[in-house]
Amino acid sequence: MKSLQPAPPAVSQMPKAGDVQGSPTAVDVMVPLALPQLLTYLLPYPVPAGTWVEVQVGTKTYNGIATTAPSLLPQKLKQAKVVEDVPALHPTTLAFYRWVARYTLSAPGEPLRVALPKAHIPPLPKTAKAQKALETPWKINEATPPTLNPAQKEAVDLLQAEDTFKTTLLDGVTGSGKTEVYFALLPKLLEAGKQVLILVPEIALTPQWIDRFGARFGVPPLVWHSNLAAGARAATWHRVARGEPVVVLGARSALFLPFQNLGLVVVDEEHDPSYKQGEAFRYHGRDAAIQLARSWGAPAVLASATPSLETFHHAGTGKYQHLILPTRHGGATMPTLRLINLKENKTDARDYLATPLREAMQKRLDDGQQTLLFLNRRGNAPLLLCTSCGTRRDCPNCDATLVVHGDETRCHHCGYREPTPDICPSCESPDMRAYGPGTRSLAQEAQRVFPNARIAVADSDTTGTTGKLAELMNELAEQKIDIIIGTQMLTKGHHLPHLTLVGVIDADMSLAHGDARAAERTYQLLAQVAGRAGRAKLAGEVLIQTFNPTHPLFKALLSGDRDTFYGEELENRKTFGDPPFGRALALQLSGLEDNLTLQAARQLAQSFAHYFPKKEGTPTVLLGPAPALIKKIRNRYRYRLLVKAPAHNHAQILKWIESTPLPKNIRLDIDIDPVSES
Ligand code: ADP
Ligand code: ZN
Ligand code: ZN
């Protein structure tokens, strides 16, 4: 950390770098590091805030952003260089970075860390040809747009009339034409020189989207995500930084691109939990997107068939505009849903396909149609038990069972692996059995039942790369696969005209998660996966296997009455003052020793009352400490405190936390607006 001293007169006596441009100047620089404050450097001449610079921290060089003059000067000033050939960061973008860092109580450099994945401005391509390609404007050449149906047209007209910030929920089932609505907005925005950001939850799911965009606009969108090749990364970053009117399709990290003139932000599948960054810089992509749009005075469009309860609530109160696309485009019908009560349809001990589902699958095979089996757990089996002594194989580092993946057994939390044992490590009996379904064991079962069927698995084990998933999707589209078995990654985006049956193997799994949002999540997941069936001319059917057929979420799914279910869930939240009726903030303490970690958490909890005294009408409450849902991960014990309040009070929270110094080996993670309880 820098030592603070009164400003010495030394600055003006420093050697001048460029006579013409003025004298050396000290500035605070935002660096792409998780440091608690900005760093002060000496620049050869004064520059406007937002100017890109190159600095040294320790032995490494980084790109950073010059902000304002320091209030105090450190004794020794390190020199920094000005990056001359990259346009300065727009003040709105800089303000947005600062806002997100402050709001999430994160280090000021975190947003920049996201904007510069390699801690440097992406280097321009080396070859002349690639450089030239970057000099050519990115320009759309629109094919004839479809004729919009009345609901789409109304939505487009209303959105087009907006030229200031406003958040809109674009609400319609999968296939109702939401994408066409925001596509229709693009040409005018680009013509007006605006930049557009379209966020999607999982970039692995976008090849079809990109093809569709290309077919419609004659050019692929610029993309942005963490696994981008260097050339594509440079192209997107520099085009955006130069202020070119472009469309960026990105994962949540695209929020921090150096926009110069943003005119629209779209958040597709806005309910998706993966918008929330799970560790370190815990921002919520959707919420940050709304703030980004607000800073630019641009509309924010949140699209979903199953909005988050928060968004649904704000659309209901009028805080957000609510635009509804009521039907699937072109009269494609919604699939019919049926529950299979597993209590009445027992399968053989180690099988997971109940008879009604098998029959429905057979019919699809006979008719040359396709089946999707959804099971949100990769691997063979989530549990390995010795049937002689009852020993269970647990991860040595986590409170979690090991999952069998063929010859290997893995922990899904820390990545621990060991060979799958043939004999029990405790009693040496050969009676080790794998229990519970996984995508791989399900595929084996399906192959046994339907020996001639062509079966494929799509999960993060088999389709680790975007290309692999795209390949699989093409094979499906070309009807080279009869049965596709997969996890969550199959639930979105793909248009498969011959897919007419969806089987949900274990609908209870995500319900059993023990999280307050479990019912909402399960509903969203199942509605989404159901949307895969029968999107074209052929009618679709969805069979859901459950032990719990009376759960309200199934009633909502079967009747299609989403809003009643949402209303009930919101009532529950209201009762408990949960978001959107109040705000929450989670603190997680973790340490290598269980007891010390708990003690530290208790201490922090004890000082809470001093900073948030109980008063009439100020129901700020502290819950916990309680062990996290999975108490131990990677050998660290985790305890949580939850603050619930009518509104955030960042300043007071900071005072409270700073008042209670933690033992050095205890780590504290702050999670504003947490969305999960682990
Ligand atoms: P969503 O985004 O709500 O899932 P899409 O915009 O992807 O829906 O539309 C579903 C399908 O219907 C797509 O193949 C799309 O091209 C087509 N479609 C949507 N609206 C129209 C329209 N007005 N005219 C012709 N085709 C349309
Ligand atoms: Zn044993
Ligand atoms: Zn583990």
Features:
678 residues; alpha/beta; GIY-YIG endonuclease; Rossmann fold; 4 domains; binds adenosine-5'-diphosphate; binds zinc ion
Task: Explain this structure.
This protein is of the alpha/beta class. The chain folds into four domains: 17-115, GIY-YIG endonuclease; 137-330, 3-Layer(aba) Sandwich (Rossmann fold); 332-381 and 436-570, P-loop containing nucleotide triphosphate hydrolases (Rossmann fold, 3-Layer(aba) Sandwich); 583-672, 2-Layer Sandwich (Alpha-Beta Plaits), CATH 3.30.70.600. 30% of the residues lie in helices and 23% in strands. A seven-stranded parallel sheet has the order 11-12-10-13-14-9-15, sandwiched between helices. It has a six-stranded mixed sheet with strand order 7-3-2-5-4-8, with no helix packed on it. Strands 16-26-25-17-24-23 form a six-stranded parallel sheet, with helices on both faces. Helix 9 (285-296) links the parallel strand 13 and strand 14. Helix 2 packs antiparallel against helix 9, helix 5 packs parallel to helix 6 (178-191) and helix 16 (552-559) packs antiparallel against helix 17 (562-576). The structure holds adenosine-5'-diphosphate and zinc ion (ZN) (2 copies). One zinc ion binds next to loops. Residues 395, 397-398, 400, 411, 413-414, 416 line the site of one zinc ion.
List the topology elements.
Layout: E1 4-5, H1 10-13, E2 25-30, E3 39-43, E4 52-57, E5 60-66, E6 73-74, E7 78-79, E8 81-82, H2 91-103, H3 110-115, H4 128-135, H5 150-160, E9 166-172, H6 178-191, E10 195-199, H7 207-217, E11 222-224, H8 230-241, E12 247-250, E13 262-268, H9 285-296, E14 299-304, H10 309-317, E15 321-325, E16 336-341, H11 355-366, E17 370-374, E18 383-386, E19 403-405, E20 408-410, E21 417-419, E22 432-435, H12 439-449, E23 455-458, H13 466-477, E24 483-486, E25 499-504, H14 508-511, H15 518-530, E26 541-546, H16 552-559, H17 562-576, E27 583-591, H18 594-611, E28 621-633, E29 636-645, H19 650-659, E30 667-672
Parallel strand pairs: 3-7, 9-14, 9-15, 10-12, 10-13, 11-12, 13-14, 16-26, 17-24, 17-25, 23-24, 25-26
Antiparallel strand pairs: 1-6, 2-3, 2-5, 4-5, 4-8, 18-22, 19-20, 20-21, 27-29, 27-30, 28-29
Helix pairs in contact: 2-9, 5-6, 15-16, 16-17, 18-19
This protein binds adenosine-5'-diphosphate (ADP) and zinc ion (2 copies).
Residues 395, 397-398, 400, 411, 413-414, 416 line the site of one zinc ion (ZN).
